[in-house]
Amino acid sequence: MTTVTVADITKLSPEGVRNIGRMLRNDLYVIIPNQNHISPQDEVEFCEKIGTVDKIPPDRDFDRHRRHTAEYDDWNGVARVTGELNKDGEPGLFPHKEEINWHIDQASTIPRNCFLMLHGVRGTSGSVTGFINNIITYNDLSDDIKQGCEGVKFHCGAEHGTYSPKSYKFFRNHINNSHKFDLVQQNASGHTGLYFPFNQIYDWEGDKGLFDLLVDHVTQDKYIFEHCWEDGDVVLLEQNLLLHKRYYFESIAERLLHRVSFNDSNL
Ligand SMILES: [Fe+2]
Known about the structure:
The structure is a single chain. With 267 residues, the protein is an alpha+beta fold. Helices cover 19% and strands 27% of the residues. It has 6 helices and 15 strands. A 6-stranded mixed beta sheet has the order 1-2-13-5-15-3, with helices on one face.
């Protein structure tokens, strides 16, 4: 984990921002505290120095997503993650108090943006996000088990109730049968790790015992880093070899996170 101490991310040079992007490739999550002052536009401009920001194109059901960005009518690179209602009476993404168990956002999507920014805007104190770095968990496997992982493929999808509550119906139940994902992957910084969003995996082609062993392995306490939020935190996370989890949080209606999805095309 890398914590970057910088007074104001909007004052960084483009190369300074890209250096943070390179850290993110290498370390899979980067935390930059004390950015209370930045605007939604600043969030997007920071991410655009690293890569292309997902502006939610119309072919991905723009209206459904716009409800979650409507606070910023002309600015659709920023999604609200909150139970707080906007001026149209709509909550943001994941408005429930219950935990969102280990996952990768849009694990089944190809191509998928490799990075996310989360920015704690208000009411974040006391909420916790967990991370598992699957480069580290992979490196700790025995050579025999690494061998067993080679060539394993699977489909990805999502199902209500597997990693978020059954009652949360924003995402659709689906399996992407058109793409098989490799369990062992190398990222752009040359690290090898596991693509293992185990709550979103279907049609696992490897040994069932290996699947269970890997779940037990990667979820050991020693591999879990918990970030305790404070307002102003900018948390950058990678979306292939990193799993994340939101813990139960009572005051979700008072907590507002902004989320920006982007890639690494400028690194
Ligand atoms: Fe997520």
